[in-house]
Amino acid sequence: MLSEIKKHLKIYAHLAKVSIMEQMEYRFNFILAIVVECIWVMSKFIYVYITQKTGGIIGGSTPDEIMLFVGVFMILTAIYLGIFSGGFNYISWSVRQGEFDMLIPKPVSLMFISTMRWLSISKPIPNIIAGVTLICIAWKRIGLEAGFINILLFIYFILCGVIITYSIYLIPHVLSFWTVKTYQIAELSYRLWDFNNMPMQIYNKWWQRIGIFLIPVFVITNFPVMVLFNKLSLVYLIWGLIIPIILFILVRMFWRFSIRRYSSAGG
User: Are 31 and 128 in contact (CB under 8 A)?
Assistant: First the structure.
């Protein structure tokens, strides 16, 4: 088990190196992508600035809590865009081009090599810098204790959000084994990500329940913040701990089910 983990980590390090080298070959595109993402980040700063100036309470959250929430959202957006998005899009492309067939016989996890083969560094850079900055400022202004337990819980729920992100947003792309082109379905999943833009308390109770228990997108960015303010009920706390495991197992089963029915590019 440990040897397999080491092998996959070495493979990922190599894939990441190749991805970065490819991006550096087209430096203008790389810089342009950073500039475009900076514009998006600025829109988030404007949102935070307005809440700070008006002092408004949104969904029961103070302006400083909103700042912390936006920081978490940016960190998870950086992870999604940097680590997952490129690999997910590669699945549909490789199925159409017939390249996916060449991955099947390789002595490595097919799900791993398919979904983790591309690392982007242009779009995540502005999000990581902005996200960490907002989190640090909000943490200090709110006066949260920087104790071991607080930081551990915060990081743990961030990791849970990463696993949930991987599991939920991989599913539309796995459908390419049947439909080949999944652009419309993937576009719907991107819109689903926008629900994490705002605290879930702005939605009514039914939407909150759907976003927590049915399609748990609210768990991704809301729970890391809520756990710091003791706003998670016992049910939510337990659910936040087990749903990443459940989702990953389910998406793994769905992947295997899909692969068994994949007929290759040649039919």
Answer: no
- The model's pLDDT over 102-136, given as tens digits with 9 standing for 90+, comes to 888 888 888 998 898 888 888 899 999 999 999 99
* 37-85: pLDDT as tens digits: 899 899 888 888 888 888 777 777 888 999 999 999 999 999 998 999 8
Q: Note the pTM of the prediction, 2 decimals.
A: 0.90
Residues paired with 58 in a beta bridge: 61
| CA 98 – CA 264 distance, rounded (Å) | 7
Cα angle 27, 124, 183; round to 5? 90
Element (H, E) at 245: helix 234-260
User: Picking from 24-33, 232-241, 250-259, which range would have the lowest pLDDT averaged per residue?
Assistant: 24-33
DSSP of 184-241: HHHHHHHHHHGGGGS-GGGS-HHHHHIIIIIS--HHHHHHHHHHHTT---HHHHHHHH
Residue with tokens 């080491």: 6
Asked if residues 119 and 82 have their Cβ atoms less than 8 Å apart, the reply is: yes
CA 108 to each of CA 1, 111, 152, 172: distance values in angstroms, whole numbers, following the listed order = 13, 9, 32, 23
Quote the DSSP letter at residue 135.
H
Taking alpha carbons only, the member of 8, 29, 33, 20 closest to residue 127 is: 33
Q: How far, in Å, CA of 129 to CA of 124, rounded?
A: 9
